[in-house]
Design brief:
The chain has 26 helices and 17 strands. With about 650 residues, it is an alpha/beta fold. A 6-stranded parallel sheet has the order 2-1-3-4-6-5, with helices on both faces. Strands 13-12-14-15-17-16 form a 6-stranded parallel sheet, with helices on both faces. A 5-stranded parallel sheet has the order 8-7-9-10-11, with helices on one face. Helix 3 packs parallel to helix 7.
C-alpha cells in the first residue's frame, strides 16, 4: 500500500512543458535524467530489475500521466484520492501535475461525497481515484446521488490485471460495471503494455469527461506490477521510451505540442424546435390561472434564465429553496411561504392553476406536489434538458427537452410581441402582497428550530453559500426562511434525498465555489458523517457546520407512525443522547454549543470571520419542535384565510377567472 501524501505534500509541480519537449530528444530507453538504470526505484527492486518489468513500470507510468494530463487539459482541476497501492500510476501522476490539486481522503465514502460536492454547479467533474478491491464500492451512495441529481462525477478505479480476476487473488473483486445503470458511461481499460494505444486512451478520457457533465462516469483501469513510477520525468521523453519513433505519429506530436485535449468536446445548448415552441405557446396562451413551479437549480446560468422566464410570464410562482430564487433580493412573482399557505383551503383553491409551467429539479415541498395532484391542470408543461422523467403524479401534458436559456432566447425571437401573460398575471402583485404579509408574521412564531432556520439565513453575508441538509433541515429552511436579505447561493442534495455525506459535500462545494459555506444539518445526518469533519481541517474556503440536535430523527415526528408504534423512539426516531461538540473536538474541529437560537447568528458570524472550520450545536426538544411545527401551519392557514377575506376579489370560488 502506498503511503498517503500529507496535505502539504499533496500538490507538487512537474517539469515545464518546454522541459518535456527538450527531454523528448533523449534516446529511447534512456534512464531517468541520463543516469544509470540501477539508480531508479524500479530498476533497483529485487524482482522488478528484469527488463520486461522495467518496461511494464514505464507503461504504467505513461498511462497514468497521459490520463492525468488529458484530464487537466479538459478542465478537471481536482483529483480526490483514497490512498492505495494499485492506483499508484494515477496518484503519482496527479501529484506531479501542476494543473491539478490533489486531495487525499482516507475514507472512500467521504472522498466520493467530497468529489460530488466539488462537481455541484460545475461544468466539469472532479475525479475520484481509488485502489482495487472494495475501495470504489464505498462510492455507491455518492454515485446514486450524482445519478439522481445530474451532478458531474468521474470515478477512476485501479484494478488487478485480467489474469488475477476470478482466481481468488487477494484484494481482487469484480469491478466491471460495478455501478450498473447508475453511471452515464463505463469503460474497462486494459493493462498498459508495449502496444499501448495512446490515442485510444486519450479519446476514452475525453469521452468520459464529456459524459460526466450530466452525472457519474466510471473508468476501471487495470495495472500489472511493478507499479512504482519509472522513466524520464517529462511526458514527451517518457512517451519516447515506451513507443517506437513510428508509434509517435503526427497527431500525437501535435497533441504533445498543444495545450488542448486530443478530442475537443463542446457542450450543445438544447434549443427548442419551432414545433415545440408553438405547442408550448398554444398551451400557455390559453391560461386563465397560470402558475410557475421552480425546483432546485445548481447552474448559475440556468438560475438567471429561470428569473427571466418568471419575469416574462409574470405568473404567480412557487420557488423551491434550492432554486436560488428564494433568498436574496425579492423576485416579484415568487410567492414566499406558498408551501405553508397551502394549509389554507381558501388559498389552495384560489390559486388552483389551469396551466402549470415547471422548470428545475425536484421540490422539497410535498404540499405543493399534493396540491397539484389534487387539482390536475389542463396543461402541465415541463421545460428541462435531458430525457429523465419528472412526473411523479402523471399530470405532465407537454415536455420540451431544452436548455432553459436557449428556450427563453428562442421564445423572445419567435414571439417579439411578448409572452402570454395569463389573466392571473394581473393579480400576481396582490398574491405576493398576501404572501408577504403572512411572511412578516413568521418571526413571531414560537419554536427553537423554526427560529434556528431563520437565524441561519439572517447570519449569511452576501456571497456566502448555504447548504441545506436533507430531512428536517431543508424542510425548515424551505418553509420558514425569510425572503429578501443578502444574495446567497443555495444547494441541497435532493436527488436521492439521503442524509449521508452531507458534510463532505458541503466541503467540496465550498472549494468549488471559492467562498465559505454554512451547512444546516440535523443530529442524525451529522453523526452519520462525522468522518468528514476531519476533512474540514484541510479545506479552504472553510465550512461552518450548524447542527440542530433534537436527540433523534425529527422528521419522523411528522408521520403517523409517531402515534402508531410503541417502538417509535428507538426504531424510527433513533433516539440518542449523543452530543456532537465532543466528537468534533476530538477530530480537531473547534466546536461550541449555543444556549438558544437567538445566539446562532452571532456564533455563525464569528465563525465566518475567523476564517476556519467551526461546528456550532443547538440542542432542542424534539416533541416541542413537533408541536411548534404543527402550530405554525395552523397559524399560517388562519392568517392566510384572513388576509384573503380582506382582499376578497382574490378569493373567488375555484374555477372562476382571476
Amino acid at each position: 500500500m502506498s503511503e498517503p501524501a500529507t496535505p502539504g505534500e499533496a500538490t507538487r509541480l512537474s517539469d515545464t512543458a518546454q522541459g518535456e519537449r527538450a527531454a523528448a530528444t533523449a534516446p529511447a530507453g534512456a534512464a531517468p535524467d541520463g543516469g544509470p538504470a540501477a539508480s531508479h526505484p524500479v530498476a533497483s527492486h529485487p524482482v522488478a530489475s528484469h527488463p520486461a518489468a522495467v518496461h511494464t513500470a514505464r507503461c504504467n507510468t505513461l498511462a497514468g500521466r497521459l490520463m492525468v494530463e488529458e484530464l487537466a487539459r479538459l478542465g478537471v482541476r481536482h483529483v480526490v484520492v483514497a490512498p492505495g497501492s494499485r492506483s499508484t500510476p494515477l496518484v503519482d501522476a496527479a501529484a506531479r501535475h501542476p494543473g491539478v490539486t490533489l486531495h487525499v481522503v482516507v475514507d472512500e465514502r467521504v472522498a466520493a461525497f467530497f468529489a460530488l460536492g466539488l462537481g455541484r454547479g460545475a461544468d466539469v467533474p472532479a475525479a475520484l481515484v481509488t485502489t482495487s478491491g472494495s475501495a470504489m464500492g464505498h462510492a455507491l451512495p455518492a454515485v446514486i446521488e450524482a445519478d439522481a441529481s445530474n451532478v458531474p462525477l468521474l470515478l477512476i478505479s485501479a484494478d488487478r490485471p485480467p489474469e488475477l480476476r476470478d482466481t481468488g487473488a487477494n484484494q481482487t473483486v469484480d469491478q466491471v460495471h460495478l455501478f450498473g445503470r447508475r453511471v452515464r458511461h463505463f469503460a474497462d481499460l486494459p493493462c498498459p503494455d508495449p502496444d499501448l494505444r495512446v490515442r485510444a486512451l486519450l479519446t476514452t478520457v475525453d469521452h468520459a469527461v464529456a459524459a460526466a457533465r450530466t452525472g457519474p462516469v466510471h473508468l476501471n483501469c487495470a495495472f500489472r506490477k511493478p507499479l512504482d513510477p519509472a522513466g524520464p520525468p517529462g511526458l514527451a521523453a517518457l512517451l519516447a521510451t515506451v513507443l517506437s519513433s513510428e508509434g509517435i505519429d503526427a497527431t500525437l506530436r501535435a497533441w504533445l505540442e498543444s495545450k488542448h485535449p486530443f478530442t475537443r468536446w463542446y457542450a450543445a445548448r438544447r434549443a427548442p424546435t419551432g414545433a415545440a415552441l408553438d405547442a408550448t405557446w398554444a398551451a400557455l396562451s390559453g391560461a386563465s390561472r397560470g402558475f410557475v413551479i421552480v425546483g432546485g437549480i445548481d447552474s448559475a446560468a440556468e438560475r438567471e434564465a429561470a428569473r427571466t422566464l418568471v419575469a416574462r410570464l409574470g405568473w404567480p410562482t412557487h420557488a423551491d429553496l434550492a432554486s436560488g430564487l428564494r433568498l436574496g433580493p425579492s423576485t416579484p412573482s415568487v410567492l414566499p411561504h406558498h408551501d405553508l399557505m397551502l394549509a389554507s383551503p381558501a388559498w389552495a383553491d384560489a390559486l388552483a392553476p389551469d396551466v402549470v409551467v415547471r422548470i428545475g429539479g425536484p421540490l422539497v415541498s410535498a404540499a405543493v406536489e399534493r396540491w397539484l395532484a389534487a387539482r390536475p391542470p389542463t396543461h402541465h408543461v415541463v421545460l428541462r434538458a435531458g430525457p429523465r422523467r419528472q412526473d411523479p403524479d402523471h399530470t405532465v401534458t407537454l415536455r420540451v427537452d431544452t436548455d432553459l436559456a436557449a428556450f427563453v432566447a428562442a421564445s423572445d425571437a419567435r414571439y417579439p410581441t411578448g409572452w402570454p401573460r395569463s389573466r392571473s398575471a394581473a393579480r400576481t402583485p396582490a398574491w405576493h402582497a398576501v404572501a408577504a404579509e403572512v411572511g412578516a408574521g413568521l418571526g413571531a412564531l414560537q419554536g427553537d428550530e423554526i427560529a434556528a432556520a431563520r437565524g441561519v439565513c439572517a447570519a449569511l453575508p452576501a456571497g456566502a453559500g448555504l447548504w441545506a441538509a436533507s430531512s428536517m433541515a431543508v424542510r425548515l429552511l424551505d418553509a420558514f426562511a425569510p425572503s429578501g436579505g443578502a444574495p446567497v447561493d443555495v444547494a441541497a442534495a435532493r436527488g436521492a434525498s439521503g442524509i449521508d455525506g452531507l458534510i463532505a459535500q458541503a466541503a467540496g462545494w465550498s472549494v468549488q465555489r471559492g467562498s465559505p459555506v454554512v451547512l444546516l444539518v440535523g443530529d442524525l445526518a451529522a453523526l452519520h458523517d462525522m468522518g468528514s469533519l476531519a476533512l474540514l481541517r484541510d479545506v479552504q474556503p472553510h465550512v461552518v457546520v450548524v447542527v440542530v440536535n433534537n436527540g433523534g430523527g425529527g422528521i419522523f415526528s411528522l408521520l403517523p407512525i409517531r402515534e402508531a408504534s410503541a417502538a417509535f423512539e428507538p426504531a424510527f426516531a433513533a433516539a440518542h443522547d449523543q452530543g456532537v461538540v465532543p466528537v468534533a473536538a476530538a477530530l480537531g474541529v473547534p466546536a461550541r454549543g449555543v444556549g438558544g437560537p437567538a445566539a446562532l447568528p452571532g456564533a455563525i458570524a464569528a465563525a465566518l470571520a475567523e476564517g476556519a472550520p467551526r461546528l456550532v450545536e443547538l440542542v432542542t426538544d424534539r416533541d416541542a419542535a413537533h408541536t411548534a411545527w404543527t402550530a405554525a401551519r395552523e397559524a399560517v392557514a388562519s392568517w392566510t384565510t384572513r388576509h384573503l377575506q380582506t382582499q376578497h376579489p382574490l378569493a373567488q370560488p375555484p374555477g372562476t377567472t382571476t
